[in-house]
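Hi P.,

Sorry for the delay on this. The queue was packed all week, but I finally got your sequence through. Input first:
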Amino acid sequence: MPRIALKRREPLVKFVRRAARGHLDTAERALRAGANGGKRTRAHAAQARRELLRLRALLQLVRGPLGTTAYGREHGAVQRLVRRITPHAAAHDTATTKALAAFASPSGKDPAKDPGKAPGKDAKPPASAGPALLRALADVAEIRVRAAHWHLPEAGFDALAPALRRVWRQSARPVNHGPQAAASSLAPAALAQAALTLHDQLRCLERMWPDAIDAPRRLARALDAGERVLLGVDFGLGYPAGFADAAGLTGDGPPWRRTWDYLKNAIQDGPDNTNNRFAVAAELNGRLAQGNAARRFWACPPSAAGPHLTTRRPPSGDDTAPPARRRVVEQRIQSAHELWKLFTTGSVGGQTLLGIAWLARLLDTPGLAGRHGVWPFSEGFAAPGTGGLLGGGLLTVAEVYPRLSDDAAGDELLHHAVRDAAQVRTLAGMLASRAADGRLAAWLGPPRGLDPADTGRCVSEEGWILGEVLK
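Then the structure:
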């Protein structure tokens, strides 16, 4: 690749990221070409190895600014990748060829004196070259994801790790076995597809990750620019009426606000995805029991079960005791699950506990505090903001249920690889279209057939699903 030079007045951090991307892009192209096989497999592997060695040298130059821990992790990852590629690039690296040949020679002679043992340029690459280079291709994509954030403090890398681990678990198992997988019943085409799928998922993660770690600042910049922002979340924003009082949640404001304040302080949600949602649910059940109310939270792993939280739904008892099992909106939408179930298929309770706590902290960050509304809690069933529909410079948060868009999604549900993604894309398109022509105001207004008593319950504590009938 062309020599990468520091541009005039270019910040060093920006140069390092640009140089790293350049080396990784070239290595990626070479590995993809080499994984296809052919006479130039070694040449492509050697080119990828050279670029990675240049990347390693770049890392050494910025060792100080990067920090000891981050440098050790990134340098180690590049070094392991170089070792993975080296056997397949040996014929194009004289020093490496000599070392490998001497190691492989039974006589222990110098390769120059025992040329029959040294791999020549016409030698076929090892049988595992294809799988190994595909695995290396996925490794390059992983390093590239982190390279875009080498300027971040250590907390940024800590937050990135869980997302990377989830991607590996989904796609990397066949690839991780390398030559063994190729020799097993797994077809080479399936192995190649697994590696390329992993690579593509990592590149997708690279594109979306900056928004995930920088959500508060990105939202604040949009509001500063006068944009109208609707933030839809696929979890409940409030519990059935009577919950806050029955659980003894004190504080200022209406019941929904007291619930949010409690969860914001009680929930612990670490960057590695560890959290205490089951412990908080058990504590809330204990509070409900003290107030002679029904203990509603249920479903957890056996290890989290205890006196106040069970793995199965507890006996119904008095269903008239507060809080109710289902919110008013869930009584209309029968496919919506109750918010009390915390675990296993169809549960929404765990993400509601964690989501409310995350959202409460997000909206309290500088740049967003005082510039947002939570529908329908803040202003009732009405388009937020005195400036009309989603007033400029305002953030509106609303609960959404992407499954309601199934009919509108149509064939996309059949053709899209991820059903949830098709539902979200369809719903986002419908919301954008309605916001553009002014029809979204009807969804933000009072639901049809909702009596005043239920309206009060929804506005003060339960919330509502935006567009509960998508028409």
